[in-house]
Design goal:
Layout (H helix, E strand, L loop, with lengths): L1 H18 L12 H14 L8 E11 L6 E12 L4 E5 L6 H8 L7 E6 L2 E2 L8 H8 E5 L10 H11 L4 H14 L15 H13 L5 E5 L7 H16 L3 E5 L3 H4 L4 E6 L2 E7 L5 H20 L8 H11 L2
Helix pairs in contact: 1-10, 5-7, 7-8, 10-11
This protein binds adenosine-5'-diphosphate and magnesium ion.
Length: about 325
């Protein structure tokens, strides 16, 4: 009975969200403390409070094979917005379009149609030669495989985006000290990536992302290569910087990781079909809500939706990967 009720609710929301052009009016349920931090950051940057930081409107992505015969529709109609100061997780089975979406948001790839606006600026209107600078100035990236350069020390890896942006050395040091202390890497800054643990490499990567003071951190499976202790530490850190006002958008397979976010978007068949807000609830309550949503997916797959034949395995995989 409960499962049937949840399934009905689930697919009502699915249909509703897929039909909507945009659901930015859903707003975000950030805490008062967070709102204050966000507002002071917004004032610092001279922007209004009510404009969404990131708007994704009717984004579609079709990949065309070289000969042009085979087309893959990776994203069909993605709509969502992220308010300043939010911590949003995106979940979805393998092949559902998560990396494609993140690449478009990162301006590493272009949508076939639709718009991505960052502070109201349409990414597709940025001139090709300005894209690298735009990315460096506004976006921070954290990847599953860290992407640190092995020939540079952690410190030089962290400084790299600032060096490219021509930032003064004293300013680089001024920014690094408090961040390195918070991330517990102050003692290992002179080491090379291969000399430190996976968790330490990932924290250095987070430091590199934060040091540019980006508008938004884009993270693709940031805990994917970490053991559960290191993953827990990283998630604690993400929570902390978010409470200080940093906006985070994280793609993850892990229910545990997603339960740290304030909102989880579920993507399927190239469309955002469900979302869950944490509101004032605990990570544990959020964990249960996400698991319940995945169970409904599983129920639907078991009920014979043949298009979702491998969904059950996927959901089990998602559960197993939970750190
Ligand atoms: N460069 C590409 N060329 C053609 N098809 C692609 C390319 N990248 C991804 N796809 C296809 O697009 C769909 C979504 O892929 P992806 O965004 O990587 O999903 P996810 O990250 O959720 O696993 C898949 O069917 C995948 O095979
Ligand atoms: Mg992917």
């Amino acid at each position: 009975m409960l499962a049937r009720y949840m399934a009905a609710h689930f697919f009502f929301v699915y249909n509703h969200l897929c039909k909507r052009k945009s659901y930015s009016t859903y707003g975000s349920l950030v805490s008062k403390r967070q709102t204050a931090a966000v507002q002071s950051k917004a004032v610092k940057k001279g922007v209004g409070y009510n404009m969404a930081l990131l708007e994704v409107r009717n984004v579609k992505k079709v990949y065309t094979a070289k000969l042009g015969a085979v087309k893959v529709q990776a994203l069909s109609d993605v709509n969502f917005s992220v308010e300043e100061g939010e911590y949003v997780a995106i979940m979805g089975e393998s092949g559902s379009g998560k990396t494609t979406l993140l690449n478009i948001l990162a301006s590493l790839d272009k949508a076939t149609s639709g718009q991505v606006l960052l502070r109201g600026k349409d990414l597709s209107e940025i001139r090709h030669r300005d894209i690298c600078a735009f990315r460096r100035e506004h976006l921070g990236f954290v990847f599953q495989d860290f992407n640190l350069l092995d020939t540079l020390t952690l410190k030089d890896n962290i400084y790299l985006p600032l060096v490219l942006a021509g930032v003064d050395h004293r300013e680089m040091e001024r920014r690094l000290q408090p961040l390195a202390a918070k991330l517990s890497i102050a003692e290992i800054l002179e080491k090379y990536p291969y000399e430190v643990s996976g968790g330490q490499r990932q924290r250095a990567a987070v430091c590199r992302a934060l040091i540019t003071e980006p508008d938004i951190i884009l993270a693709d499976e940031p805990t994917g290569a970490l053991d559960s202790r290191a993953a827990g530490k990283l998630l604690g850190l993400f929570g902390e910087v978010n409470r200080e006002g940093q906006t985070i958008l994280m793609v993850t397979h892990s229910v545990q990781a997603a339960s740290h976010a304030g909102r989880v978007l579920f993507i399927k068949d190239g469309c955002v079909f469900h979302q869950i807000y944490k509101g004032g609830q605990s990570n544990e309550a959020m964990y249960r809500m996400i698991s319940d949503a995945l169970t409904v997916l599983q129920t639907e797959a078991a009920a014979g939706n043949t298009a979702d034949a491998d969904l059950q395995t996927t959901v089990q995989t998602i559960e197993r990967r939970a750190v």
